[in-house]
Amino acid sequence: MNTSEPADRERGDTERLNWIDRRRAKIRDEVARNRRGEYTVPTWVLTVALVVIVAGWLALILLVG
């Protein structure tokens, strides 16, 4: 056993590489879906847009009227 790192670190490095590989694959798959036109807008973005539109109309009605 002339290694400079303990066996636990080797497993940790392997897990880290696997995590990185999984993360890269997930990002790669998402980019491929977006290029095919299968992207979706998150629900919270739609909610914020709806609130802004409704608040704008209410402000317009109350300030002008």
Which keywords apply here?
65 residues, mainly alpha, 2 helices, elongated
Shape: elongated
Helix content: over 70%
Q: Approximately how much beta-strand content do the residues carry? A: under 5%
Radius of gyration, in angstroms, nearest whole number = 25 Å
Model regions low in confidence, pLDDT < 50 over at least 5 residues: none
Number of domains: 1
Structural class: mainly alpha
Number of helices: 2
> Span from first to last CA?
84 Å
Mean pLDDT across every amino acid position: 85
Tally of strands: 0
Following the backbone from N to C, one meets helices and strands in this order, namely HH
Descriptive overview:
By secondary structure, the protein is an all-alpha fold. It has one domain. The chain is built from 2 helices and no strands. The protein starts with 6 loop residues before the first helix and ends with a helix. The model has no long low-confidence stretch (mean pLDDT 85). The chain crosses the membrane at residues 44-64. Keywords: Membrane, Transmembrane, Transmembrane helix.
